[in-house]
Write a structure and sequence with these properties.
Blueprint: E1 25-36, H1 39-46, H2 55-68, H3 70-73, E2 82-92, E3 97-108, H4 113-131, E4 139-149, E5 156-157
Antiparallel strand pairs: 1-3, 1-4, 2-3, 4-5
Length: about 170
């Protein structure tokens, strides 16, 4: 199958893809990322004892705002009317990491993968920002699209991943 670069004209110039002729469909995307912390930072985060306050609540708000602003950050990304954005955090004490998952939904002509990916990255950056007074060597890692449904390409589930909760009620 030949890959076609949809953001390039025949002359090789950048262009925003025209999605005007595509039908609106229900879209959903789930992305995940992780931030690795020291045991001491993890303990302070879980105890809500960091100097800047409730880290995960702040990261959730930041991720939601980032999803809503994705088209302002990524030059050829379409602005979308998001119907749902959520972020979930899971502390993994054994590996001293916070697993971040975003879920973004809309009914539109193009997908919400970029919004989901932007949400987890900004949430991870917010965690870093709020913990940096205690630890500077945190690592943000494993950012990836896990699941998407809707549109012409249908359903995608990343290899080795389990379907997220939203997959049970997604309407592609």
């Amino acid at each position: 199958m030949h890959a076609q670069f949809t953001h390039l004209t025949e002359d090789g110039e950048l262009t925003m893809v025209d999605v005007g002729g595509k039908p609106e469909t229900q879209r959903v995307a789930v992305a995940r990322s992780e931030i690795l912390l020291s045991p001491a930072t993890m303990a302070l985060l879980e105890a809500k004892a960091l100097p800047k306050g409730d880290v995960l609540a702040t990261a959730k708000i930041a991720g939601i705002l980032a999803a809503k602003k994705t088209a302002d950050l990524i030059p050829l990304c379409h602005p979308l009317h998001l119907s749902h954005v959520d972020l979930r955090f899971q502390a993994d004490r054994d590996l001293n990491r916070i697993c971040i998952e975003s879920e973004v939904r809309c009914a539109d002509r193009t997908g919400v993968e970029m919004e989901a990916l932007t949400a987890v990255q900004v949430a991870a950056l917010t965690i870093y920002d709020m913990c940096k007074a205690i630890q500077k060597d945190m690592v943000i890692t494993a950012c990836r699209l896990v699941y998407k449904a809707g549109g012409r390409s249908g359903v995608y589930l990343a290899p080795g991943e389990t379907p997220p909760q939203c997959a049970a009620h997604a309407k592609p």
